[in-house]
Amino acid sequence: MPRLITVAAAQLGPIQRADSRGSVVARMLKLMEDAARERADLIVYPELALTTFFPRWYLEDRSQAEPWFESCMPGPETLPLFERARALGMAMSFGYAEATPVGQHFNSSVLVAATGQIVGKYRKIHLPGHVEHDPERTHQHLEKRYFEPGDLGFPVWNCLGGLVGMAICNDRRWPETWRVMGLQGVELVVLGFNTPSVNSQKAGEGLAERMFHHRLSLQAGAYQNATWVVAVAKAGVEDGHHLMGGTMIVDPEGRIVAELDHEADGLLVRTIDLDDTRFGKETIFDFKRHRRIEHYGLITKRTGVGAPLGKGGPEL
Amino acid sequence: MPRLITVAAAQLGPIQRADSRGSVVARMLKLMEDAARERADLIVYPELALTTFFPRWYLEDRSQAEPWFESCMPGPETLPLFERARALGMAMSFGYAEATPVGQHFNSSVLVAATGQIVGKYRKIHLPGHVEHDPERTHQHLEKRYFEPGDLGFPVWNCLGGLVGMAICNDRRWPETWRVMGLQGVELVVLGFNTPSVNSQKAGEGLAERMFHHRLSLQAGAYQNATWVVAVAKAGVEDGHHLMGGTMIVDPEGRIVAELDHEADGLLVRTIDLDDTRFGKETIFDFKRHRRIEHYGLITKRTGVGAPLGKGGPEL
């Protein structure tokens, strides 16, 4: 029997530095109403959905970044999202900059059930970029300055009759992200991103190759763990800085089943069957039969590159 | 300064059950001479290069498979490959069925330096398929019957002025394969395969999707570890069973730079720069700066899928 859910990828166009939280939440509510008309069970917004992608700016005094952070969730400005989603019976996920009561800062996302209850929280683990101003880059990417690496792992939650996980942006390039969720049986990964269309360390790379790497990472993660993926961009030009689009839904065979072709606010709605994950999980990626963890030790023993293990020699 | 080497992917067309070792070695030598004319520094042959893909046949008495195995390497029939490669000053890698003196059986490959010395041996870790005859499949895939899982890990060797690793066929679908080599700084992975063009458990899947998964796995492994890949097929119809082609060279950005478009004996020769791996290894995939092994524990703790870790609840 199929386990059908209707997912809405809710891409946001650019958010300028001067835009108020209220104006952004109004745009998100508009997308939510549109998704409701298409009977969505779940709406997924991008990373840092409430603000501009502020890690592009270097602030010598880090505390000046505080206005971009949320100190409670829901807070007064985000509560309308929770209330409207609950009224519509729609689950939701979105990303935001999180400040904790003890002064920590994370690049986070929440998974909110149709009841309005926060089911899960994720804090971005693979922070790209750097800590200090880097004059050699075409632009700054200071996620390592403004955020700490996530401290909650990659949990998977029971939600919407399936197993749902979250990841954020650069996490998608790391197979470890997908595998840790795959080992919990994940059936749907929701993933928001804000990806500059220019590589700050390789200006000639070009948008086409950036998009190729984006798709490759999502498709490999989906295929190798037999999971659905809903990946949602914040896109377009924010204060002169271009973020690429590429909002898409990928099936458990790694095929792109739908992709937005613009960089403005917009929805991609599809009904997906969580049971489509079963074939992969039961055959070629039946981990229990095929994985050989006795040979994977370096993955958790070494952080960086170490000496090669091959000894060679005629005794072989 | 670039570190250029010229690699030759030496695809083999089909090998019938009735074909002698001598006839196969003659074909391999012909490809080697062709590669020498193109000044190849390294020639890479496929998995099980010396025989037909015999795991497609169920033999109740396993010992009847013994003639397909090599009990020494080089042996009398493979010695001409070693001698000619040494005379030409060419390194080489090929796959074969290995029987050890103590009665073990592996799906193995060797890396042979231009001096003729075996530098490294790899024994396939991710064996696909099954152990007993399975009447529900369109054809049998009995690698788990005829081979034990490899016991040598995924070493990387100093060879040809770079860091070279080996993998075999189904290993390419597992990100762990690539990452364990990536953590040793691998710059070139050589990988042979024999891949049936029909999924024995999903006849309708089709060749195009099989080829898509093949490319996706190679491209993701290359990109996410910033390594060159030379992947080499045994292709064509062996005793009525079709193996797909797809011999290709993939660069450290995950781009396919060359691909054979036939299923017969044939060469793909390219000069590659091992220093092209540096950009990826020093920026987005600088493991030391970006990996967070404290959150990867499940990868080596769990073999199969276990309970989801997400607890949920309003305290979040």
Short description:
By secondary structure, chain A is α/β, with parallel strands linked by helices.
Description:
The structure is a homodimer of 316-residue chains. The radius of gyration of chain A is 20 Å and the shape is globular. The termini of chain A are far apart. In chain A, the strands form three sheets. Chain A has a six-stranded mixed sheet, covered by helices on one side. A six-stranded mixed sheet of chain A has the order 6-7-8-9-12-13, with helices on one face. In chain A, α1 runs parallel beside α2 (79-88). The longest helix of chain A is centred in the last third of the chain and has 19 residues, at 207-225. Chain A is built from eight helices and 14 strands. With 316 residues, chain A is of the alpha/beta class. Chain A has a single domain, classed as Carbon-nitrogen hydrolase (Nitrilase/N-carbamoyl-D-aminoacid amidohydrolase, 4-Layer Sandwich), CATH 3.60.110. At the A-B interface, β5, β6, α4, α5 and α7 of A face β5, β6, α4, α5 and α7 of B.
Following the backbone from N to C, one meets helices and strands of chain A in this order, namely: EHEHEEEHEEHEHEEEEEEHHH
Average pLDDT figure of chain A: 96
The largest chain-to-chain contact, stated as pair and per-chain residue counts, equals: A-B, 80 and 80 residues
Overall geometry of chain A comes to globular
Broad CATH class of chain A? Alpha Beta
Number of domains of chain A: 1
CATH superfamily of chain A: Carbon-nitrogen hydrolase
- CATH structural fold name of chain A: Nitrilase/N-carbamoyl-D-aminoacid amidohydrolase
Q: What does the main sheet of chain A amount to? A: 6 strands, mixed
Number of helices of chain A: 8
Helix content of chain A: 10-25%
CATH architecture of chain A: 4-Layer Sandwich
List low-pLDDT spans of chain A.
none
Please compute the radius of gyration of chain A using only Cα atoms: 20 Å
- Beta-strand portion of chain A reads 15-25%
What's the oligomerization state?
homodimer
